[in-house]
């Protein structure tokens, strides 16, 4: 099965046509937050949160179809042995747009945790709690200094990697492997 995320702009355009309140990055963040807490989350639970239009509307149907693919690939990546999980980001956009998308992803992740039932972060395991608190802070940060383009590019790459690895860590901490790996 295909384990490559759909194109950011295709997802974003589908969400806009369906008149969703969320960007592609936010929607992906919500999915990641929900899945990190509960891998058995059904795509319909997430779709109901992200797309709230008339199910007979063709744009809503298109968005739901595109988003269902995104959800499936996201779950596969989060649980894959090769740790190839990625954040859905507009890779070929200008730096300010990528920073905005990263912050939107963080905001979506926080919302995803809440939708999944996390009412008090203090009840999360320590590593997951500290990381999730960082995600919330990143998502709510005011304007970030982007004056030095090279330093900003490096900082953004580091933050995205921190988020990527943190999702995998939290997913593992919240849903450890059910059966031990057997070594022959």
What do these coordinates show?
This protein is an all-alpha fold and 184 residues long. It is built from seven helices and no strands. The chain has helices spanning 8-17, 24-37, 43-50, 58-79, 95-115, 126-140, 149-174. The protein is globular and about 45 Å long.
Helical coverage, percent range: 55-70%
The mean pLDDT is 90
Return Rg in Å.
16 Å
Main sheet overview = none
Task: Report the total helices.
Answer: 7
Question: How many β-strand stretches?
Answer: 0
Q: Give the amount of beta strand, in percent.
A: under 5%
| Morphology call | globular
Oligomer: single chain
Distance between the termini: 28 Å
Short description:
This protein has 184 residues and is mainly α. Helix content is 63%, strand content 0%.
